[in-house]
Every structure is written in structure tokens, then in C-alpha cells.
Predict the 3D structure of the following.
Amino acid sequence: MANIRQLDKRRKSVRNIRKITRTMELIATARFKKAMDRAAAATDYTKRITQIVQDLGKSGTDVSHPLLEAHETVKAVDMLVLTANRGLCGGYNGSVVRAATQRRQEIREQADAGQTLASGKRGISALRFAGIPLEKTYTEFEDQPSFDAVAKIADELITRYITGQVDRVDVAYTRFVSSSRQIAVVETLLPFAGIEVPAKDASKDAASGAGSKVEGSSIRDDYEFLPSAGAILEEVVPASFRARLFKCFLDAAVSEQIARMVAMKSATENAGDLIKSLSRTFNRARQSKITQEIMEIIGGVEALG
């Protein structure tokens, strides 16, 4: 029969673990709500400014922007991998790292890998363990990433693309679809040639009096540029890229908190089941010991009689 003292000690340890996992679940839930509010607030802005860039690129004007033009040959590809600084979030970090390493292998078969940048201590450790060299690492991003910090990374990537040091920029992160669905993806942010934006509602445009031509998609062709189309593109296109990259960081933050919330909830439930099992074993062992002691007392009394 198992030792009663060891069973009681193990049961107390599991109870302490359950308190920790329950607390972490509550913290992740609170952080998830805040992160989701930020991501939801940025979604509409990101979609709208991306739609404007797409419309301007197809408006028939003679001006263009380097970020809208795809390079003739893809010789170097930069990749930014977004993971978490901490673990205990299920397969969140592992799925992103797997997607990034798979895309990196595909890139190496066609072009140079370029620079690999990683955000999050877990991703940094995993990529280094896999033998992937990292040019830059970032560990300052938590559940509330700063737009200014993300904008600095975006400006560096923009400079590398415009100067021809890199021909494409990919970002590996976990896309937030809903509270029950998050997908690890590798998305191409530069060039903007691959932008996919949901078509605007033509009925809303008609109701607002906006003139538009619909040929497969709602693309406005009545833009008036003040002071000039080139000046507007010079500001709007980089701003759109910064917004899209910031949205990737926000999605990653929301998905991380959801993954941790689910993992800690599962751990709490498993700890509860283990406590019940240990309690049953403990009670049986204690009852067996009590029965044995009673039998010894009865045997001693009979021997004395």
C-alpha cells in the first residue's frame, strides 16, 4: 500500500500547482480582453488604409511607390517571426516556429534566406536550437505592443526593400480569426502586389454618394490628389505597411493570451482530476492502516486474555 505521508504530500503539491494554473488562467483572461480590444480597434483602420493603398495603386495614375512595385527577381527574402517571451501556452510557439522554418526552407530552395528576425524569447531559443542564424532579436513586446516600437522595425524593413537589399518581406505569426480559432501563418507584407482586401460594399458607396466603377471589385477612380498623388502615396503607403505590421503584432498578442488561457484551464482541470484520484488512494491507504491497527489491538488483547 502506498505511503500515507507521501500521498498527502503529493496531494498538497498538486493543490498548490492548481492554484498557480488557476491564477495564470485568470490573468490570461484579463489580458486577452484588453489585447482583443486593441486588435479590434486596429482592424478597421488597417483594412481601410490598405484598401486606400490598393485603390490608389489601381486608380490609373502615372505615379507609383517603390513598395507597390514587385522586384523582377526574388534573390533575398527577410522573415520576421513573432512568438512569445514565455511558455505555458500550449502549442502556440511551436506552431509559429514550424511554419517559419518550413517557409524558410522553401525560400532557400529558390533564393537567399536574407535576414531572419525574431520577436519573443521562446522563438529565439527555438530558432537558434534549429541552427538558424538571427540577425536581430526583440524581447520587449508583451501583450500590449507599442506602435512606436513596431514602427521602427517597419521603417528598417522599408529601407531594406527600397534600397534593394531584400526583394520580399515575410512575417510568421498567429493570425487571430476568432476567440475559438487562431492560425499560424506566414504572410507576405512587402511588396504590396499581393494585397488581398475584402471588396467594399457597393450599396454603402452608393448611399454615401461616392462614384465608383465595379468591375470584379469596387475600385474608385475619381480620386483628387492634393497637393499631389506622389506626395500622398509617399505618406500613405509606408503608413499602411506600419499599420499592417502592427496588426500582426496585435494578433500575435491576442492569440498568445488565448492559447495560455486554454492551456492553463486544461492544466487546472487535470490537476483537479489528479487531486480526486490521490484523495481516493489516500483514503484507502488510511482506512487500511486504521483497520490494521485495530486488528493488532484486538490480537494483543486476545493474547493477554
Residues 105 and 113 are 8 Å apart (CA to CA). The two ends are 31 Å apart (CA to CA).
